[in-house]
Amino acid sequence: GQLFKVAVLPGDGIGPEVMAEALKVLDAIEKRYDVKFERTHANVGGAGIDLEGRALPETTVNICKAADAILFGSVGGPKWETLPPDEQPERGALLPLRKIFGLYANLRPAIIFPSLTSASSLKEEVIAGGFDILVIRELTGGIYFSQPKGIDGAGRDRVGVDTMRYSVPEIERIAHVAFQAARKRGKKVCSIDKANVLSTSVLWREIVINIAKDYPDVELSHMYVDNAAMQLVKWPKQFDVILCENMFGDILSDEAAMLTGSLGMLPSASLAEGTFGMYEPSGGSAPDIAGQGIANPIAQILSAGMMLRYSFGMVEAADAIDNSVAKVLDQGYRTRDIYQEKAGEKLVNTKEIGDAIIANL
Amino acid sequence: GQLFKVAVLPGDGIGPEVMAEALKVLDAIEKRYDVKFERTHANVGGAGIDLEGRALPETTVNICKAADAILFGSVGGPKWETLPPDEQPERGALLPLRKIFGLYANLRPAIIFPSLTSASSLKEEVIAGGFDILVIRELTGGIYFSQPKGIDGAGRDRVGVDTMRYSVPEIERIAHVAFQAARKRGKKVCSIDKANVLSTSVLWREIVINIAKDYPDVELSHMYVDNAAMQLVKWPKQFDVILCENMFGDILSDEAAMLTGSLGMLPSASLAEGTFGMYEPSGGSAPDIAGQGIANPIAQILSAGMMLRYSFGMVEAADAIDNSVAKVLDQGYRTRDIYQEKAGEKLVNTKEIGDAIIANL
Ligand SMILES: CC(C)[C@H](C(=O)O)[C@@H](O)C(=O)O
Ligand SMILES: CC(C)[C@H](C(=O)O)[C@@H](O)C(=O)O
Fold first, then answer.
1. Residue A331, class by beta-carbon neighbours within 10 Å (0-12 exposed, 13-18 middle, 19+ buried)?
2. What is the fold, at CATH topology level, of the domain defined by B121-260?
3. Nearest to A232 by CA among A170, A190, A293
4. pLDDT value at position B135?
5. What is the rounded average pLDDT of the residues B44-52?
6. Domain spanning B1-111+263-361: which CATH class is it, in words?
7. Interface of A with B in 80-109 (CB under 8 A)
8. CA separation for the pair A348, A334 (Å, rounded)
9. Residue B154 has pLDDT above 90, yes or no
10. Ligand 2: which residues within 6 Å by Cβ?
């Protein structure tokens, strides 16, 4: 049997509770497939700050380095909000992890399950039958990481500067990720830029058009980021794969996720070249409901599924997890965040929905 | 009586048709108030390219320089889409106009009229009673205009670069605009930034907090841009004035505008220091319906109203225009874009709704 090493970083808030359910699912996968997941737990975010003095302790980095993939919970909470931005749980953990491990490709599905369309703030007629968008966001370049960046001068003479920079190879590799993903889905890529204003976008568009020639079976379109923010609201079903640079992807993936109405359902993957990746729910640490056993673990469980698919090549097991989640929703199981008091719905807690997903595997 | 000089730039697509109605409204204002609007027409956008070789001809700039305000229609269309970005109607006209005239403060109202809530793609329960957001966008700084900007190198070694830069005075003056606007409305400013990633945002937040001390009657909050993109969809009514740097304002103002469901209703103002300003509809040139006399002129008429309010200090006349538009909507007048085949609605064309607005002044 195969052995995979998983760095388990539960983090803060609801992180540990939902992580527990994802780990139960990994146990169940071990029983059904000839595979072992060797798990090493490590502190991150607020837990890292409290226990080891920083959001991303060195021990944690080393545990991740020794692993085949990182399963990440969620970080942040009011307790650490007054720290300087660099040291805060989210920024202080996520940005260094992305850079250290070269996690350049962020995959953020925004899916409405047909049984959950009514959770969206969009009208029934706009989303009837659900939608299924995959945002592919460049994650290690652009205005997040380029130099110069900083505040120069003193007093009222201060000037803040950030730099957005993209090289051809950076654009090429993320474009390949988008076209390859589109091939396995709706065969459409919409590339987002602001080529009427940004030089990086002019280069981005040219290179994406070039790479598209390798994928004649995939349809490529281009949209300005401001128009994309509108079109998502107007008619989300027009999109299949959305390809973005780092900052635009941050904004549009969150907008698309909120349009589904159920953030607690959305996983994400951040992939390096090769098979290494980090997997985490799209939602936050929800400190307001932490410790009550009522959080929705589905995003964390689907994140574990993405790990099997992208880092471990276990497509069958990953499909089994996805299908099981869909079945459990069809059976009416609902945590509080997606409960709508409709006939046929069963209000359950974190553990119960985890158990139901395992029972349906 | 007073005399105001208006540079009239109708532009392309539906621009000339909707401009005609706005000019009729100015005629009507002249009859009711002791004022004269001396109007000089000039070419801009595709019309500028076709007739004078460029999107913003020098004659047009000179006419604008001699004026007290610019009333702008809309520009762009398929005919000019293959030109290099710099020369295209939108980019080639709007960015130089903003820079030449120092139009640093962009005011973009996103309003749902209670009688039009059903045009929004948001659910009735999310927008019941309408909403009224004013996005204040910094318009002459940030990543739009800062240097270095360009593509360096050759072939696969090329690198694209854009720079986002903000100085303290640039942030201060736009913050004042936001707080002063909030004072006359809901007394809340939500300042948007990405202070967990961008140095410009760290400075932005600090300065906005400083300026807020001059406005103790206005409540200030801060939101990351990705979260703002979500919160707009989730619960737009939480916002009163949204204050943004240039790029974030471009994205969020369009998202907010689309949430109203009736782009043809939304005016905008771009203000310089002093009283000079440029006024234009938020929607595009809609080449698909141009020349048919069915376009909605309300955004253009409300833009003329903003001109009276902000550049000419004619608050009473501006209120009269706003009220007249609201009345005409209450009376059921609808151009095709906002017609919903409901009882009490009267489908009318561009001229008819213009006449109705004048009749109700
Ligand atoms: C916490 C923050 C630095 C991060 C980002 O902007 O990338 C977050 O918003 C995300 O999208 O993962
Ligand atoms: C045409 C373009 C340069 C412009 C901008 O990005 O500012 C437009 O989108 C706008 O918002 O007025």
1. middle
2. Isopropylmalate Dehydrogenase (3.40.718)
3. A190
4. 98
5. 98
6. alpha beta
7. 85, 88, 90-91, 95
8. 6
9. yes
10. A 196-197, 226; B 90-91, 94-95, 250
